[in-house]
Write a structure and sequence with these properties.
Blueprint lengths: L1 H33 L3 H7 L7 H37 L13 H37 L7 H10 L1 H12 L3 H30 L6 H29 L5 H33 L5
Length: 279
């Protein structure tokens, strides 16, 4: 039954998810075109010039940055609103009458929502990479292409990692593996925390939406404070290198978010199982 719930949730959220992915592709195209104006070529040649066309280039890049932020926050808001509507309003009455457990209902929403955030996050990273590569290509020496640069980086990638590890005195491979694990898990932790905050809002008698928003803000502030305290402890502890600090800081971030996500998952389960009062 969990599979059917996941397929249904994926179908219901695919329109918005695909629309946002299309917007990422569109703004990436416009961002790439913005770097094709004469201003950027003249800067790379050391003879900066400015024309009316370059005004649109700068405005396009500013809009690109704002759109990236808008997409990042937009998908989070959309998923939060959808969770609230399909779980705690009359729209979600049918979902709670299905022959499924509350765990299955919550997991289907967390898995699908986490996947959409993961896909959009990857698309945003790829978009920034493409624009960064586009800008970098303007400043490469004459006759030297991006393909040549990537080829050289690929050939010397191992040596580069070893050099970074020696300079910063830490295991780069371990840090990269931890970073990949964090990247994969963080979208699911994010939506679990979001859904938990929304569920906490349902414990209030009135103004539940406002209570959910304030709960989420409070949780984010608490996480930020805890992370800052832990980083401060690391700074004054026996951390012998910047690399050790990076490793321990990343590890602590994963632990804090995972523990919080697990705790708030059970808050959502408790509310949907024992305190359900749909509006």
């Amino acid at each position: 039954m969990l599979g059917k719930l996941i397929r249904h949730e994926w179908k219901e959220t695919s329109k918005m998810g695909c629309l946002l992915l299309f917007v990422v592709v569109l703004i990436t195209l416009f961002g790439w075109l913005a770097f094709r104006t004469p201003m950027w070529k003249s800067i790379s040649n050391g003879n900066a010039s400015f024309s009316w066309l370059d005004i649109f280039s700068v405005l396009t890049l500013m809009m690109y940055v704002m759109m990236l932020a808008g997409i990042n926050y937009g998908i989070t808001i959309y998923l939060g609103v959808r969770f609230y509507q399909t779980m705690y309003t009359d729209q979600g009455y049918l979902a709670h009458t299905l022959p499924v457990t509350k765990h299955q209902l919550l997991l289907s929403k967390i898995l699908v929502s986490g996947l959409w955030i993961f896909f959009l996050m990857l698309s945003l990273y790829l978009s920034v990479f493409i624009l960064g590569a586009s800008m970098l290509s303007l400043f490469l020496p004459q006759g030297y292409s991006l393909a040549s640069l990537w080829r050289e980086l690929g050939l010397n990638f191992g040596e580069l990692l070893e050099l970074i590890g020696e300079e910063m005195d830490f295991n780069v491979i371990r840090w990269l593996v931890t970073l990949v694990v964090t990247t994969i898990l963080s979208p699911f932790a994010t939506v679990t925390i979001l859904f938990g905050a929304i569920s906490m809002g349902q414990l209030f008698g009135k103004h539940r939406v406002l209570a959910a928003i304030l709960s989420y803000i409070g949780i984010m502030v608490a996480v930020s404070v805890l992370s800052s305290i832990f980083r401060s402890i690391l700074m004054f502890s026996r951390i012998t290198s910047a690399g050790s600090y990076l490793n321990n800081s990343l590890d602590s971030s994963i632990i804090i978010n995972l523990l919080l996500a697990v705790g708030l998952y059970f808050v959502s389960w408790h509310v949907t199982s024992n305190r359900l009062n749909m509006q």
